[in-house]
Design brief:
19% of the residues lie in helices and 36% in strands. The chain has 304 residues and is an alpha/beta fold.
């Protein structure tokens, strides 16, 4: 029983149709449905109905993110534990959004809206489950396998980390501490799936999105993503490089509304019995950008 993985992110965008074009033609996601307010998309290798929702709004950012639980009874169990921790919960009714069953929504200590869900319509991957080929015959754009993780910002990283570890049974794979070891300024956590992170936080203003990341196969696909972004004149923030934290390979860029995206690959395998890796704040440049060993200004200031 428990939380299995990240399931979806709902992003606010300022021009819905322009954003749909970007996420389909450049990122390479598939539109699976629309309602009066939202467009629903998925990657070619995802089983569930959608992993990304676009909602038109006056300002960009994260409307909510959600995690899938293993059993329907987990919703009641986690709801009680979340309320005991001190967070207010409410139920999202089945059918309130396309393809989705009931969900538990709550506000975490950093002000972000998070949901847990079990039931969602299954539509299948583009290659199926019977003698599947390695990839679809035709793909568009970057064509990631899946939504991989989100990085958010907030002030109270200690409390939000406690919530995910003590209540939702996440594991903290890595953390960033001030040099004196007194204050946590970064926290990277994953559910019981062996990934280096499903969710991460860095210290900053509450309720902000730093980036939403999509998983690609390998380093070559990160380079290919950068080629596609350049061809389409998408704003690239950081050209392909490696992280020290997670050991992943990456390229960062922005959607038409200013939401930061990442094409991510690699990373190590980790488990709940592994110790947490600690970085000190004086080495944060190397932790984030392993080769250049220093941050760029926009990486901390461009938030939505």
């Amino acid at each position: 029983m428990g939380v299995m993985r990240i399931g979806r992110a709902e992003l606010r965008v300022m021009d819905l149709e322009k954003s749909v074009d970007y996420y389909t033609d450049i990122i390479g996601l598939n539109v699976v449905g629309r309602d009066a307010e939202r467009v629903y998309l998925k990657a070619w290798d995802e089983w569930d109905h959608h992993s990304l929702i676009l909602k038109e709004a006056e300002s960009p950012g994260l409307e909510h993110m959600a995690f899938k639980v293993e059993k329907v009874d987990d919703l009641d169990r986690f709801e009680r534990k979340i309320e005991q921790f001190g967070c207010t919960t409410r139920r999202i009714s089945k059918g309130e959004r396309l393809g989705e069953g009931e969900a538990v929504r709550f506000e975490i200590p950093t002000g972000h809206q998070v949901e847990l869900y079990y039931d969602i319509e299954h539509v299948g991957t583009d290659v199926g489950i019977l003698n599947p080929h390695a990839r679809p015959e035709v793909t568009r754009g970057i064509a990631p396998h899946r939504l991989d993780h989100c990085l958010l910002t907030g002030e109270d990283l200690e409390s939000v980390t406690r919530l995910f570890i003590e209540v939702l049974d996440f594991h903290q794979s890595e953390k960033i501490m001030t040099v004196d070891g007194q204050v946590m300024v970064g926290s990277f956590m994953h559910a019981r799936n062996g990934k280096p992170h499903d969710l991460a936080f860095i210290k900053g203003p509450d309720k902000k999105l730093h980036h939403a990341a999509f998983f690609v196969d390998n380093w070559y696909d990160v380079l290919k993503a950068a080629d596609i972004l350049t061809r389409h004149e998408v704003q690239i923030e950081v050209t392909p490089t490696r992280h020290g934290i997670t050991r992943g390979e990456t390229v960062y860029f922005f959607d038409p509304s200013g939401n930061r995206n990442e094409a991510f690959t690699g990373g190590y395998i980790t488990y709940h019995d592994f110790p947490t890796i600690t970085w000190t704040e004086d080495k944060i440049g190397q932790g984030i950008f392993y080769h250049r060993r220093e941050l760029i200004e926009s990486f901390g200031s461009a938030l939505t």
